[in-house]
Amino acid sequence: MAMGVHSHKRGRNAKRAPMAEINVTPLVDVMLVLLIIFMVTAPLLTAGVPVDLPDSRANALPQDEEPLNVSIAGDGTIYVGESAVPQGDLGAALATASEGVACSEREVVLRADKTLDYGRVMGVMGELNRMGCNSISLVTNSSSDSI
Predict the structure, then answer these.
(1) C-alpha torsion 88→91→92→95, nearest 10
(2) Contacting residues for 84 by C-beta, under 8 A, at least 6 apart
(3) Contact at 8 Å (CB) between 63 and 135?
(4) For the residues of 51-73, what is the DSSP string, one character each?
(5) CA-based Rg of the chain, rounded to a whole angstrom?
(6) Which of 12, 78, 103, 106 has the lowest CB atom count within 10 Å?
(7) Using CA atoms, how far apart are residues 28 and 131, in angstroms rounded to an integer?
(8) 102 near 132, Cβ under 8 Å?
(9) How do the pLDDT tens digits run along the chain, 147 residues long?
(10) What's the number of CA atoms in the CB half-sphere (13 Å) around residue 37?
């Protein structure tokens, strides 16, 4: 059927009835565009600090609640969430980011650039442990290569 008005009578006095069908093609087009946009942007929202992670063959761990993200960039800058932390101020930044929940009751996810010195990463892990963060998970890229 053509879009518009249906009329069986021709002439000047013919009554026009509005079309009662809904054209869903524009709705489907908009929904597909939105789906593509969300599929592209969703992976970019996981972490705001760009870190080149090392590869690992370990399986992912299940998560019950939102963990506290700590990242170490390639230049050695420490981030809690997306906020850079000044040197020696990690404890205060963690207390602010944990929103009143004790560090021992919350999981900490540590993301470190693979080009960093092992001692730098261990130093941050030691500082987290000293503050009571006993559940620290290290994030890596998944890899199928064996050692």
Answers:
(1) 160
(2) 77, 78
(3) no
(4) --PPEE-PPPPP-SSPPEEEEE-
(5) 28
(6) 12
(7) 52
(8) yes
(9) 455 555 555 556 567 777 778 888 999 999 999 999 988 887 766 656 677 777 777 776 666 667 788 888 888 888 888 888 887 888 778 777 777 677 777 788 888 888 888 888 888 888 888 888 888 888 877 765 555
(10) 6
- What is the residue type of 39? M
Give 138's DSSP letter. E
Token pair for 51: 């870190």
C-alpha distances out from residue 52 to 1, 56, 75, 87, 116, Å: 57, 13, 11, 21, 10
Q: Which two tokens stand for residue 95?
A: 């207390």
In single-letter form, the type of residue at position 146 comes to S
